[in-house]
Amino acid sequence: MDNTEVASSRERLALVAFALVLAAVLAVHAGFETLFVLPSNPIGERLRPLVLAYTHPYFEQYWNMFAPAPIASDVIVLARTRDAAGAQSAWVSLTDPLIDKVRANPFSRYSTLKNVAMTLGLAALADKTLSKGKLTRAQLQTLVEPKTRPMFFDGLLRLAVFLRAGEGTDVRSMQIQIIDHEFPRFSHRFERDDVRSNNHSMLLPWVPVSRTDGSTS
Fold first, then answer.
1. What is the pLDDT of residues 143-160, one digit of tens each?
2. Whole-prediction pTM value?
3. Which residue among 32, 165, 188, 193 has the highest number of C-beta atoms inside a 10 angstrom radius?
């Protein structure tokens, strides 16, 4: 076997090896994406932390537009603060600035924060206790206490502190509001926004926070 044949054989082996590696990578990628978009199932739930770590933020796929029941609303998360003198800041949107950042740069790290804010907001809206409206004193105390408050509420507070919601630096407490904005049906597409009452708002209680260290306590 001369040098030409040896070189040709090596090239074929290299191409075969490259093809096998590429096929394996694509198979793994397709597997993760399939688990991400499939409905809840035992395998997907068991591998969910690994799947989320792989897909976020660059490979996430949402097929709501093509689903049998397409997405019908979006979630807006607002926050306001109160200082030591009791003065309240105006409501500040946590989701709108993140959406603007993602629109400017789809590969921005803010893409993950946008999904986090909306996911936490949806979790709050779906909470059976909060959805009842008026809460008992014991339920309010459970929300305020750091050790007993739901993870989604604690996550919303920490996100608001991270995004520096509100005004001033002497922040003592914070309040979160979640608005579920329902998209108008096609038959009502020409109506003005102020005519339709298609927003559902959830107001969470005031919670002590520390702006200096980002803690909520």
1. 888 888 888 888 888 888
2. 0.61
3. 165
